[in-house]
Amino acid sequence: MSIDPAIEADIAPRPRLRIPMHLGVIMDGNGRWAAARGKRRTEGHIEGVKALRNLVELCINYGVPHLTVFSFSSENWTRPKDEISFIFNLLRRFVVSDLQSLIRNNVRVRIIGSRAGLEPSLVRLIDDVEAKTEANTGLVLIVAFNYGGKAEIAEATRRIAGEVAAGRLAPEAITEDTIAAALYTAGLPDPDLIIRTSGEQRISNFLLWQAAYAEFVFVDENWPDFGEASFIRVLETFSRRDRRFGGIEAERS
Ligand code: IPE
Ligand code: IPE
Ligand code: MG
């Protein structure tokens, strides 16, 4: 009996995939995806949300426990007003329309970033989705919204300085753990893998402190084109990386 080569390729054993404990994704290239198709940038953002839904499902299916997605940076305020309000409305709609399915899928949502400067109704919505998914025990979905890594470190520093000024903390007692605990990501493991789409190879102020030992994988596709095939390719690349953490032996998975 002969097997169709296409089927054979499909059932060929894959090298064992290393699953990241915490995947960070810089979802870049929505505007270029749209421009390449003669569409408006906003249409790229709509497609970007579809790719995000798909990614959440992939993380659930492949057992990735924590996923942080960069959806709006503190530097994105320099964009035209119309685009900013479109992105904000998309976030609102995502939260409202996907809440039931996130709850059904046992997803816990956390929104990180500065709440200062956000409309009170948006802050209420964010608080609401966090509260309604708080007891969930599956995927932790962290949405970095109005987020900047430098601003996060500055905010943490202000909080720690306040503790020192109040006499509750001695400067000598400040450790890396003190700082980590004052960041938005307190209690979460650091990302071990960060993906950026669209061919850009920079961090753009994403998880600066937390990315100290992350593996980076840059892919050329724009964010709306990032699907399961790309996800598996990235995990295969990650699986081949030697992570040494300053030592000489690679970490064994
Ligand atoms: C990423 O896509 C989404 C946000 C930054 C909000 P972009 O909007 O940056 O798309 P490009 O990089 O201009 O193609
Ligand atoms: C990073 O993308 C921020 C998000 C994906 C939300 P940008 O498009 O804002 O980054 P730069 O300007 O190319 O560095
Ligand atoms: Mg961009």
Automatic annotation (TrEMBL):
**A family per Pfam:** Prenyltransf
Name the catalytic site residues.
D28, N76 (proton acceptor)
Q: Where is the signal peptide?
A: none
- Look up the record and name the cofactor or cofactors this protein needs: Mg(2+)
Q: Which UniProt keywords apply?
A: Magnesium, Metal-binding, Transferase
The residues that hold Mg(2+) are D28, E215
**Organism domain of life:** Bacteria
Q: Main EC class of this protein?
A: transferase
Per the annotation, how and in what number is the cofactor bound?
Binds 2 magnesium ions per subunit.
Provide the E.C. number(s) assigned to this enzyme.
2.5.1.-
GO biological process annotation, one example: polyprenol biosynthetic process
Gene3D superfamilies the record matches: Decaprenyl diphosphate synthase-like
The answer on whether this UniProt entry bears the keyword Ligase reads: no
What cellular component terms from Gene Ontology apply here? cytosol
**Is Magnesium included in the keywords of this UniProt record?**
yes
Where along the chain is substrate bound?
A: 29-33, 41, 45, 73-75, 77, 79, 196, 202-204
Citing just one GO molecular function, the answer is:
ditrans,polycis-undecaprenyl-diphosphate synthase [(2E,6E)-farnesyl-diphosphate specific] activity
Q: How does it assemble?
A: Homodimer.
Per the record, the similarity remark reads:
Belongs to the UPP synthase family.
What is the purpose of this protein?
Catalyzes the condensation of isopentenyl diphosphate (IPP) with allylic pyrophosphates generating different type of terpenoids.
What HAMAP family has UniProt attached to this entry? ISPT
What is the designated name of this protein?
A: Isoprenyl transferase
Species source reads Devosia ginsengisoli
